[in-house]
Amino acid sequence: MMPEQAQLLTQIMALEFTAVDLNLYLDTHPDDQRALMDYNSAAQELAMLKDQYQRRYGPLTNYGYAPSQYPWAWVNDPWPWEVSF
Amino acid sequence: MWVYEKKLEYPVRVSGPNPRLAKTIITQYGGPDGELAASLRYLTQRYSMPLGQAKAVLTDIGTEELAHMEIVATLVYNLIRDASIQQIRAAGMDDYYADHDKALYFVNAAGAPWTATYIQSKGDPVTDLHEDMAAEQKARSTYEYLIQLSDDPLVTETLSFLREREVVHYQRFGEMLQLVYEWQGSRHIF
Q1: Which homologous superfamily is B19-116+123-186 in?
Q2: Residues belonging to chain A with any Cβ–Cβ distance to chain B shorter than 8 Å
Q3: Sign of the CA dihedral B11, B4, B70, B131?
Q4: Which residues contact B132 (CB under 8 A, 6 or more apart)?
Q5: Of A9, A65, A85, the CB nearest to B3
Q6: ipTM rounded to 2 decimals
Q7: Which of B7, B53, B169 sits opposite A80 (nearest CB)?
Q8: pTM, two decimal places
Q9: pLDDT tens across A29-80, in order?
């Protein structure tokens, strides 16, 4: 994987991890307004970064969650367990 | 339903082939306190939970555990991928290789296959949440033992991430247990 792709992917991974952690926290603290604002900010920024990533490097999700370039790019290598960071 | 995202939750790195280490780490893939057990336990317990918050906690943590299972698989895959037959034999991994080559299979560190007897889904939310808290502690301890065994600092980084997540999950299950107690206290059970 080229460094620019790996760098953008690492950014997305870090931000999404923040969102996952906030998600779990909100499940037991649904009234925490500040946490919810942070979650929504992360979700918004994630959508933007993922859109950027997917336009350049292909879909991160299938089942209708993201469009694909032609030919069908979902099947492309590398798959996550093959990526060197 | 589930959607798969084509990326890892955490960037996994290894320094080089290490089948000896892979043989121990695989226990968090198919062992009693590993990520498959955790994810299936939570994902099956969620159906009988009485509160939306409990269904969310079990669904969300269960899903994250699937992502952790993928991380453990990635570690094992990369630790054996470039190993020679000699290295595999020296590591005592030839038994595994005979049945699986370099493929991933659900076993513990001693080679015992995964079993549903590793998990319980008791229906009583207090009971199930206690099991979940215990499961997270067992997983944390296992990661600590693997960190002790690890001679690869890059692998140790990933193991430390996974260990930290178990601590957070334990916290969330504890909070959910409190919420269940409060809900039970406020219900009028005649």
Answers
A1: Ferritin, core subunit, four-helix bundle (1.20.1260.10)
A2: 9-10, 12-13, 16-17, 20-21, 23-25, 27-30, 59-63, 65, 74, 79-81, 83-85
A3: positive
A4: B41, B42, B45, B58, B173
A5: A65
A6: 0.97
A7: B7
A8: 0.97
A9: 999 999 999 999 999 999 999 999 999 999 999 999 999 999 999 999 999 9
